[in-house]
Amino acid sequence: MAIEYNEKVLDHFFNPRNVGVIEDADGIGRLGDASCGDVFVMYIKVRGGRLVDIKYQVQGCGAAIATCSALSEIAKGKTLQEAWRLTDDDIAAELGGLPLEKLHCSNLAATVLHRAILDYAENRRGDRHDWQRLYQQQMTNSE
User: Fold this and answer.
1) CA 13, CA 23: separation in Å to the nearest integer?
2) Is 36 a catalytic residue?
3) Which CATH number fits domain 7-135: 3.30.530.20, 3.90.1010.10, 3.30.1330.60, 3.40.50.720?
4) How many CB atoms lie within 10 A of CB 13?
5) Separation between Cα atoms, residue 135 and residue 127, nearest integer Å
6) Where are the strands (E) in the chain, listed by range?
7) Domain boundaries, the chain
8) Distance CA 18, CA 27 (A)
9) Is 105 an active-site residue?
């Protein structure tokens, strides 16, 4: 059975935004999902507590590519706190919805961004425990 994607998802799939690597990234998030084979790497650049650049590499289905592309657009320019609060629902809404069997892809994109923020906090050597606690709370609330 073929999966039906809306025009916005197809646009992000065929014309992905912000693909690439930030060589001197302030934070890097990595995530792989063995159940579907998707692999995500997200790079962030932070200035003054704000995401000034975000790039990603993804190996996966059209929904995985589209969700990373959409996330990169909505996260860029946000404060770390605003970016931290982005969820799979925000990404799916930005894309105008995803087929039910592909909703997990938006959750993976949000999670890899959160991991990049955690990496940034760890690199700064002071903020990781606060972000880690928020991450655990967020994961508990989403179950």
Assistant:
1) 24
2) yes
3) 3.90.1010.10
4) 18
5) 12
6) 27-33, 38-47, 50-59
7) 7-135
8) 16
9) yes
The amino acid that residue 56 corresponds to is: Y
Active-site annotation holder among 105, 113, 117, 118:
105
d(CA 92, CA 96): 6
pTM equals: 0.83
CA distance 110 to 6: 20
How many Å apart are CA 49 and CA 79, to the nearest integer?
Answer: 6
Q: Alpha-carbon distance 131 to 140, whole Å?
A: 14
Identify residue 75 by its one-letter amino acid code: A
Instruction: Tokens for 93, please give them.
Output: 């809404």
HSE-up (13 A, CA, CB side) for residue 17:
16
pLDDT single digits (tens) 91-135:
989 999 887 777 666 578 889 999 999 999 888 765 555 656 665
Residue 34 confidence class, pLDDT cut points 50, 70, 90:
low
Q: Say which of 11, 16, 28, 36 is annotated catalytic.
A: 36
| Tokens linked to 43 | 């790079």
